[in-house]
Amino acid sequence: MSGMAPALIGIVLALSLAPVAPGVIARTKSLVAGRKGPPLLQGWYDIGKLLRKGAVISGTTTWLFRAGPVVGLAALLTALAVVPSMGAPALLAFPGDLVLLVLLLALTRFVTVLAALDTGSSFEGMGASREAAFSVPVEPALLLGLATLARGTGALSLSEMLGPAAGRAWLAMGPALALVGVSVFVLLLAENSRVPVDDPNTHLELTMIHEVMVLDHGGPDLALLEYAAALKLWLFEALLVGLLLPFHTGSLAADAAMFLTGMALVSVTVGLVESSMARLQLPRVPQLLLGATVLSGFSLILTLR
Amino acid sequence: MGTVLVALVLLAAGGVGSLAASSRPRLATWIGSGSCAAACTLGLLTAFSSLGRPPLSLRHPWEVPYGEFALEVDPLSSFFLLILFGLCLLAAVYGAAYLSRDRTPRPLGPSWFFFNLLVASMALVVMARNGILFLVAWEGMALSSFFLVTFEDDKPAVREAGRLYLIASHVGTAFLLALFVALAAATGSMDFDRWRSAAELSSPASAGLLFLLAVVGFGTKAGLVPFHVWLPEAHPAAPSHVSAVMSGVMIKMGIYGLLRALAFLGPPPPWWGATLLGLGVASALVGALFALVQQDIKRLLAYSSVENVGLITIGLGLGVIGRSYDLPALAALGFAGALLHLLNHALFKGVLFLGAGVIAQQAGTRQIDRLGGLLKKMPVTGACILAGSAAITALPPFNGFAGEFLLYLGSFHGVMALPGAQGLLPLAALVGLALAGSLAAACFLRFSGLSLLGLSRGDAASLARDPSAPMRFSMVALAVSCLLLGLAPGLPLLIVEPAAAAAVPGVVPAGTLAGSVELAGRIPKVFALLILLVVALAWCRRRLLSRRDVSVAVTWDCGYERPTPRMQYTASSFGEPIREMFAMLLPARRRVVPPEGFFPARASFQSEVVRPFQERLYGPAFDAVSRGMSRLRWLHHGRAQLYVLYIVVTLILMLSWFLASQKAPL
Predict the structure, then answer these.
(1) What is the pLDDT of residues A226-263, one digit of tens each?
(2) Across the interface, do B455 and A205 touch by the CB < 8 Å criterion?
(3) Which of A61, A117, A156 sits opposite B515 (nearest CB)?
(4) Are strands B604-609 and B588-593 parallel, antiparallel or unpaired?
(5) Could you give the CA distance from residue A45 to residue A141 in angstroms, rounded to a whole number?
(6) B419 touches chain A (CB under 8 A)
(7) How far is the C-alpha of B386 from the C-alpha of B382, rounded, in Å?
């Protein structure tokens, strides 16, 4: 049972700290802008407030609208079981789990988009259309980046690819993995609707992708969606930290401290990116994502020599 | 073996009986669909009982030159027979109710005759072990499906689709004829068992030529790009249960043929695998992209069949590459992934076509921009279509996941194992799989989201409701099997593995390889966890809201009080960002009348996606052929004497050629 302890602690950390990551990003942005900023736990406060409310549901909707947040969150919670953290293997790690992760993310997107289309609103239709369109280059980019890692480490499981094996791969093919790192960071920004792809701060109608899809959700449904969004950010950050800090000391406390520092650093970096640049014009976004795909593909070709 | 023959006889008798009862449509339907359902049940029993047994075979002399009535059911045949009889059984049940609800009365007897003929000839195709018998069955399949496609022959579009289909099938068959004649010339026999030694008798160059003949001939039936142009025309034109059978089973006969041909042609050089992989990637991407911009829901599904045949062919390509570079893991994952995806595609494309048929019948239109809000009106059909859409997108926990999982694993294995430039092949497979996968996700979000959800965009759709019990039964059976095979992804491997081993000599079972073991191991557990979490969260949500104020209001539209159906996002706009990303491949024609002046009165916008294969490749090519043919028009005078003269001259020429060739050995 002691072998599973790090994995279980990793899941507990994710469940409890995921809503804090957006708080770190917001605090960074506030500090850069010279403001004090919201508390780090604002994410939890919001979720708590929403969970205590009732709901207003559009008469146009069907059961899919109510199922969307539930299935989406369930898929992300399941994904927690295959994404490693703290340099230790994940709970249900197996060769090929990277494909499962990509398709679980696709399941979340599928139900969120359907729930948005269920309202029959033109705004939510727009958000749904963009979410579907921007996912087209994201999936190949992620899989190609992971293929580079698979080739470098000789493993097919995320837990082995992002563990100590990745450290040895860094020595053998550092430049290729650096490209993968950049690509995964761009995907993190895109998949979590951060600047420069989308701006989560411009609320409601002015937001272009994620927030606009959830316009009609309220109360506990919105709480589930917010929590799912935080978990998705956490999953991508954990992938990036596993790639960039592939150390495993064996001491649980040291591993956890290093992992959490890495997570905080990634969040701060996202905050700095958001402070230093504006949202891209919408037609430019596919070019950015295509760039990430090309980087991933190029990293794989580098390793094929 | 006997039961399969009984099934074939039953199909023939039922077909003829239903033709005889043409004047009484209800009786014809009962005889036709009843005999088909009974024969399919018998066939299913045989196919199941032949699993894990030595191959059954039957040989009977036949007067046709070189022909022999040679049948055999090996694991590959029984794999295809299971899919064939399973889907045709449900399609026959559905079709009986579907055709009798048709608004314009059309003769049902011939339709059932050809349906039974189609089922019987497909069964013969997968059991035939003689070249002549195979070709006869192949031709029977092409002709019977042609008559099924042209069922609504009062519509010009249907007649045009039928003509294109007939031409395409026969061009494909011409290549097969050349292939079979060459194989017979090399081995001196039309017997499949003798053809297995064809590899030793022929040089690498001629084996390569035979491979290309097989790719074009069988690829045309399978709908591989660029031989696919008939598919998106013919499949939508047919009645929906026939479309389901054509997309679910009939085009897979091309894959079956390719597998058999690969077995005849011996150890493959790498370029064969590269060719198959290239065609597969091209089909997957072209199919997915064109599916995304279609207005007609059945045409959308037909393009998606092109995509899925592409995915299957990517699997075959990976398998062949694995054989040429001696990587048993890659070969096993490629072939098993291809066959597993083939089985899964039959199920989810079946339910999607049957569902699309219900939409077309109930809403009176197949234009996606006129649909909407159907999930409320027809909850059962809607749920089945949603399950099919999730399955075709390979989402957990549905059956599409397992096949794509094996294909992904295969390309990852290839990327990891092949050095240098060889690694570009599995890399291309990976890009193709991932890109086609995400495009298909967008396509089926568009299909299910805009036709089932929101508000109805047309008047006719407001009267729609769920269809009669037999039609519901067929759809629910397929949707439930999509879910069950998804929850137990190791189960279909039990029939896939022997089939792959029978198709490719020396292939190892894929289910024993790293990663794919998990289809029976950890993946079902992950899916169980997923379902458990869904149930738990849904329960929590219900508990939280049970004693609170949950009110119903209109959709939030930024303060505007009366949202109307016309304000919804349309399917065309939904797909537009992706069309723009791939504008090079999906050029659009636009006619814009911009609003002018201070009080603009008239403005309009029309856009239509160009069909480049028809307009830029085949259109000019066929025009050139018909121009060339018109040069020969002077031969046609219309006078009988001249035609008799032609015949006499031809006979004399042939006779002298024959005599000259007789003299040579003396």
Answers:
(1) 999 999 999 999 999 999 988 888 788 999 999 999 99
(2) no
(3) A156
(4) antiparallel
(5) 35
(6) yes
(7) 6
A254 in contact with B at a CB cutoff of 8 Å? no
- Yes or no, beta carbons of A133 and B515 under 8 Å apart: no
Give the pLDDT confidence of B540-560 residue by residue, as tens digits: 999 999 988 888 888 877 767
Q: So what's the ipTM on this one?
A: 0.95
SS3 A280: coil
Peptide bond preceding B226: is omega within 30 degrees of 0, i.e. cis?
Answer: yes
Cα–Cα distance measured from residue B138 to residue B136, given in angstroms and rounded to the nearest whole number: 5
Q: Cβ contacts of residue A9 below 8 Å, gap of 6+?
A: A86, A252, A256
Q: What token pair was written down for B125? A: 């195709």
Strand ranges for B44-134 from DSSP E: 56-61, 68-73
CA atoms within 13 A on the CB side of B450: 33
Contact flag B577-A67 (C-beta cutoff 8 Å)? no
CB B62, CB B52: distance < 8 Å: no
d(CA B501, CA B58) in angstroms, rounded, equals: 22
Question: What whole-number distance in Å separates Cα of residue A81 and Cα of residue A72?
Answer: 15
Query: In this complex, do B434 and A140 lie within 8 Å of one another by their Cβ atoms?
Result: yes
Q: Would you say residue A202 has pLDDT above 80?
A: no
Interface residue of A60, A63, A211, A282 to substitute, partner B, most B CBs within 10 Å: A60
Closest to B214 in 3D by CA, of B285, B138, B288, B141: B138
Query: What sign results for the dihedral spanned by CA atoms B588, B590, B595, B596?
Result: positive
Distance of CA B660 to the CA centre of its chain: 49
- pTM for this model (two decimals): 0.94
**Does the beta-carbon distance from B578 to A100 stay under 8 Å?**
no
Q: What are residue B609's DSSP bridge partners?
A: B588
Mean pLDDT of all residues belonging to chain B: 90
Interface contact flag, B558 A205, Cβ < 8 Å: yes
3-state SS, residue B50: coil
Q: How far is CA B587 from each of CA B93, B156, B572, rounded to the nearest angstrom?
A: 41, 26, 14
Determine contact: B424 vs chain A, CB below 8 A. yes
